[in-house]
Design brief:
Helix content is about 25%, strand content about 40%. By secondary structure, it is α+β, with helices and mostly antiparallel strands. The protein has one domain: Hotdog Thioesterase (Thiol Ester Dehydrase, Chain A), CATH 3.10.129.10. The longest helix is centred in the middle third of the chain and has 16 residues.
């Protein structure tokens, strides 16, 4: 039997065509937490032969969205930032793990670590969300 947290994320994924295009697979969902993964494809690489920065950002942004919305309280990004630590290449398998640092009534703060298949951190993302009073499902 699934939890409300998993049900919310499943609903989000059904309607999130960008996350589907990225090839995101949901690995784990808990209250205020998410862990997802994807594989880098050739159309995700920039002119320097490394992944476009928008790809790990987008993976982290999806992990952020799944973590901050999975209580079934529509939350939207107020502020995000990312630090790129190592280059990412075609075929790399990226995992994003979103951990809740603060769960306030109107805001939430999340730290997302993006790592590759060798468990090397490739990027660090921080997201601040605003919580609305709307339900997702």
């Amino acid at each position: 039997m699934s939890t409300i947290h998993e049900d919310v994320v499943n609903h989000m994924m059904e309607n999130d065509f960008f996350s589907q295009w990225l090839g995101i697979e949901v690995l784990e969902i808990k209250e205020g937490y998410s862990k997802i993964k994807m594989t880098v494809r050739k159309e995700m690489v920039n002119g320097f032969g490394i992944v476009h920065g928008g790809i790990p950002f987008s993976l982290a942004d999806s992990a952020f969205a799944f973590a901050c919305n999975n209580r079934n309280n529509l939350s939207v990004a107020l502020d995000t930032s990312i630090n790129f630590v190592k280059p990412v290449h075609i075929g790399d398998q990226l995992t994003a793990e979103a951990i809740e640092l603060h769960n306030g009534r109107s805001t939430g703060l999340y730290h997302i670590t993006i790592s590759n298949q060798h468990k090397h951190t490739v990027a660090l993302f921080k997201g601040l969300c605003f919580r609305t009073e709307k339900k997702l499902i």
